[in-house]
Amino acid sequence: MKEFLATFETFFNNGIFYYAMFVMGSYVVLTLLSAVEMNGYMKKNSYVNYREILVSPLAPSVSILAPAYNEEATIIENIRSLLSLHYGNYEVIIINDGSKDNSFQRMFDYYQLEKVDFAVNYQIQCKEIRGVYKSKLPSFSKLTVVDKVNGGKSDALNAGINVAAKDLILCIDVDCIVQEDALLKLAKPYLEEKYQVIATGGVVRIANSCRVEDGKLVEVNMPKNLWPRFQVLEYIRAFLMGRMAWSRLNGLLIISGAMGLFDKNIVIKVGGYDDSTVGEDMELVVRMRRYMYEQDRRFKVVYIPDPLCWTEAPGDLQILGRQRNRWTRGTIETLWMHKDLFFNPRYGILGMLSYPYWFFFEWLAPIIEFLGVSIFILLALMGNINWEFSLILISMVYFFSLALSTVAILFEEMSYQQYTKGGDLVKLLLAAFLEPILYHPLTVYWSIKGNIHKFIGKNNWGTMTRKGFKQETPSDEVRQQTTTI
Amino acid sequence: MNFFQTIFNYIRETYTDRLFYFPSNIRISLLIILFCVIAVLELYLYISFRRAQQIKRKRDEAKWKEYIDNMLANLVIFDESDSTEDIVNHFYPKMSKLPLRNPVVNQVLTIEILTYHKNFTGKIQEVLSILYRRLNLDKKSKKKINNKNWEVKIEGIREANEMRITEMAGEIIKYTDDENGLLRMEAQAAYIKLSEQYPFRFLDRAQERILDWHQVVLFEIITKNKKLTIPSFSHWLRSSNDTVVMLCLKLIDHFMQFDAAEEVQRLLKHHNPKVVKKSVEIIGKLELADAEKHMFEVYFDQPEDIKLDILNSLGKISSGNYNDFLSSRIYSSDPKIKMEALYAIKRNPNYGEAKLREIYKQTTLENQALIKHVLDHRIKH
User: Inter-chain contact B216–A116, Cβ cutoff 8 Å?
Assistant: First the structure.
């Protein structure tokens, strides 16, 4: 028995160690790649005058699709903000996904809507569209409201695609704060890449504690609450480092559901969003990519590092846990639906690199980490632990994580420097110290929970409670909106 | 204190005396820890130093900007009756006393002169141009254009372009077909503005692609510049570079160059579908009735998006020769084709809507819905 335990311990130690080395090595490579990509992007775009796209009749046309479900508190303000984006050729399509509150009535009254004889071409399956509405007021001629039977976010987006008249579709969360120049920046890659661009995404930032006026972000602040602050760090790391590197490799698998611009024709050809998964944003990109490979067409999925969209991050651990649980289930579902991609050379970088990366490092990493910690505790209870070595190994992971987060903060400093106050920078640096101890274990726990829920068939979206963006003004009543997304 | 001393001694011993006696994975881990700690400390120092430097630079820039701004504001409100030379002679001594060797001052002055030059016209613009040259800033721009670094070259080209230093056109043309796309685009944009003789000469020699984005920029410059003599762009429609053909088609479209009609019709058989699509669009926009039969000939071999454009163009021409063809399209299995054909019929100002109402009475429910959609003026096509 002792011999077996000793062999197991050696195997366990080496296995975990080499896996950790592999993960860390991949992070180093991704960091280097994203540094190259970021540097190139910053140089290239410092000469760009986006006004030229704004006024040009040659700019691609865009349909903005924003599903709304029980958004009566903010819907008018959100639509107004979308209608004031800086872009020439675009339309705004709000899809009322069978809201149970007064969302539709508020839109109907405020924008003076009337039903039009719109013949919907059901190119993608979706629940019944009850009516298409346009405003009687010429100043809102860009606005179209689709009223449909409730079917969830994916179904609502599919309905919107069926109604969209433009070449590109921007799928967004209606409650996000979109930067005024977001469309200009997202549309530019469609005009400048050598190969066909099928999707572009931008950086999503966290708006907690930021000052918002009339649906526009006017002051960026570091979240006061610790959990959103950790998410700021996490988002900077994921967007500025991870996704930029994958964009460089043309191996990007996900465009954030909060905001993504897609080639409408390709989305229609692949059948639109899949409403059977909770990871519809990732699944769509994977399906679009595999379609392009199957058609032998050269293409690109581009990520741009500009902060284009600001969203409220969950400040409550329970809600954050639900969100992460859902993300894990979405990853599992997408990986399972496209399992034939695994190391399949037919799909180039998608099959040989992106998919295996997501499999080994996004899905498997928390499981291995959880197993590692569990076995460590078990061995410790049995007195079979070399505490000095364990401490060294744990310290290695901690300091590597700290170094990685610090590099991410450096990227932020050298690029967009959104947190200009010295105090905010210090808070961010401190968060990097605490994150591996306080926040990371929770993300592992939520991920494990997500795996368990997936395998026992618990597949709901979960309830997401948002405080709204007006919380910074003390006199304002804090809005509570409950959105099932 | 004792505790920290103990930890310090432990770390020192671990890295000096004991390091080589650890198993390999622990040794590697210790080296990674050391590397990460040093990296984090260095990054912290660098970030702090960078912030401090940034604050100082911003302060300097703000100070000089205010000073230079005041100077240029005086220039703007100068007496109208004074001659250009008088104004220059008044301001030059003050400006030449600025510490131009200081890169911050040099940069702020250049940017401010460029900004004022962009925002004003007439005498003020002329004065700024002369001051720019007298202060030898034009020589600095020329030096930048010949720099090895492409970013600096672009900066120089932009300065020469804004200040209209026409003699630099000769320097710039060599970059109009450069491998670096950004440099190429900046050079082309500047060359159009600076070349007095033949601003479109770069199109003759363009081997590199003019990306769609570059076409947007060039299109804006060409269509907004009222001083430019617009040539007949059909001259380049036989270029072997498809992107040159595309740019010229967009310009033919904008300037409504009817003399290009024959060449545009020829492009309906071009190998590049983008060129065919744009040619169809132009035929519709210019209402080239002679080209209808050519579009009809190629219609059945085209992908869906070009078919839609052909139907749209037939609608715009509305000669009446292809009414039967358009009516027959509403029996297509593709709803987009049906819809476009209905819109094409509707476009005929004499009988379009009446014809649709007539079809409505005899057709299927699905087509009736489409006709109602087409006839609803609140829905934009």
Answer: no
pLDDT single digits (tens) A344-367: 999 999 999 999 999 999 999 999
Instruction: Tell me which H or E stretch contains A5.
Output: helix A2-45
Name the residue in chain B with its Cα closest to that of A420. Answer: B51
Kindly give the residue spans of alpha helices, DSSP state H, lying in A111-181: 153-163
Task: Count the Cβ atoms, other than its own, within 10 Å of residue A101.
Answer: 15
pLDDT at B15 over 60: yes
Query: Could A425 and B220 be called an inter-chain contact, meaning their C-beta atoms sit closer than 8 Å?
Result: no
Q: Which residues of B touch A188 (CB under 8 A)?
A: 213
Q: State chain A's mean pLDDT as an integer.
A: 91
Look up residue B226 and give its two tokens: 């009222």
Nearest CA to CA, how far is B44 from chain A (Å)?
A: 8
- Indicate yes or no: CB of B212 within 8 angstroms of CB of A114: no
Residue of chain A nearest B209, judged by CA positions: A194
Closest B-chain CA to A421: B51
Instruction: For residue B336, give the chain A residue with the closest CA.
Output: A121
- Contact (CB, 8 A) for B51 and A428: no
Query: What ipTM was estimated for this complex?
Result: 0.86
* Burial (Cβ within 10 Å: 0-12, 13-18, ≥19) of residue A461: middle
> What residues of chain B lie within 8 A of the CB of A17, using their CB?
25, 29
**Terminal Cα distance for chain A, rounded:** 52
The stretches of chain B forming alpha helices (DSSP H) are: 2-13, 24-76, 84-96, 103-119, 122-134, 137-145, 150-162, 169-172, 181-194, 201-205, 212-224, 242-255, 261-266, 273-285, 292-299, 304-317, 323-328, 335-346, 352-362, 365-375
The model's pLDDT over A413-450, given as tens digits with 9 standing for 90+, comes to: 999 899 999 899 999 999 999 999 999 999 999 999 99
The closest CB to that of A400, out of B36, B46, B181, belongs to B36
H/E run at residue B84: helix B84-96
- Residues of chain B contacting residue A414, judged by C-beta atoms under 8 Å apart: 50
Single-letter residue type at A411: F
Specify the pTM.
Answer: 0.89
Residue B101 neighbours by CB under 8 Å, 6+ apart: none
Q: Minimal CA–CA distance to A392: which of B19, B182, B360?
A: B19
Which H or E run includes A411?
Answer: helix A387-414
pLDDT in tens, A90-109: 999 999 999 999 999 999 99
CB contact under 8 A, B36 and A429: no
First to last CA, chain B: 79
Please say whether the beta carbons of B142 and B158 come within 8 A.
Answer: no
